[in-house]
Amino acid sequence: MTAAPAPELYFAPPPRSRHGGRAVQRGHLDHESQPSRARGVELIADRIAKRSHHDPVFLTGDFNAGESNPAVLYIKGEAARASEGTAPVPAAPGLVDTFRVLYPNEAPVGTFNGFSGAEDGEKIDFIFAPPAPVAEVLLARIIRDNQDGLYPSDHFPVTARVRLQP
Question: pTM, whole model, 2 decimals?
């Protein structure tokens, strides 16, 4: 099995900041265990919260979780926690799915295709960005290209172009 292609994220224009202008985190969550996915995003949120600078953060990757999964809802700030239980967790990052900013009702959006080109599954690959006005999503795509029915990965790549505000 080929690893999912890394999501592509383009910035326009290049941001200026004494810390480099942005932080990009990449994640690949477990494909079988919901508790592992939940704890994984909470650990990512903890790293985001503990950064020494507060430049905009972007989170990309194969989350192996659909759009209604608690792990995804937590990243978007739509759930107070991803895991079950009562132990304290970091505040939800409150990021937006760049694809859904531009295409809130688009269907089908499946990104796992199993090398078959199937589009009807869940969207499990994401590029998350800070919400407006910090970041403006200019372009977002699920790339479904193939060559004679052959796909380079079992996932469709996702891409986004984002403008950071000064």
Answer: 0.89
